[in-house]
Amino acid sequence: MELDEIRQMNLEDLRVKERETREEIFRLRLKMRTNQLDNPSGLRRARRELAWIKTVMHSKQGAAETASKESDAAAS
Questions:
Q1: Phi, psi (5° rounding) for residue 2?
Q2: Are 17 and 6 contacting, i.e. CB atoms less than 8 angstroms apart?
Q3: Which of 38, 19, 14 is nearest to 28 (CA)?
Q4: 8-state DSSP, 38
Q5: Of 13, 15, 36, 43, which is most buried with the most CB atoms under 10 A?
Q6: C-alpha dihedral over 46, 49, 50, 52, to 10 degrees?
Q7: What is the pLDDT of residue 76?
Q8: pLDDT band for position 73 (50/70/90)?
Q9: How far is residue 60's CA from residue 65's CA, in Å, rounded to a whole number?
């Protein structure tokens, strides 16, 4: 998955994708430990994708908190 696709997802979709990616990393690690992993670069790709997802989630949560604080200040 590309970074642009991740940035276009909403927060709920990102949470689902994060869970799926964590499960994929778990399966890949298990395969690596049992010498069944054919392509070790898949683990690196999945870890990088998880980092992208977490980064985008963090930035979107921060933007949502800032927006709610601004609306609270305007209402006062």
A1: -90, 155
A2: yes
A3: 38
A4: S
A5: 43
A6: 160
A7: 66
A8: confident
A9: 9
Q: State whether residue 2 is helix, strand or coil.
A: coil
For the domain covering 3-75, report its CATH number. Answer: 1.10.287
**Which runs of consecutive H residues, i.e. helices, occur in the chain?**
3-8, 11-33, 41-75
Domain boundaries, the chain: 3-75
Position 6, amino acid: I
Token pair of 56 as six digits: 């985008």
| pLDDT tens readout for residues 31-48 | 999 999 999 999 999 999
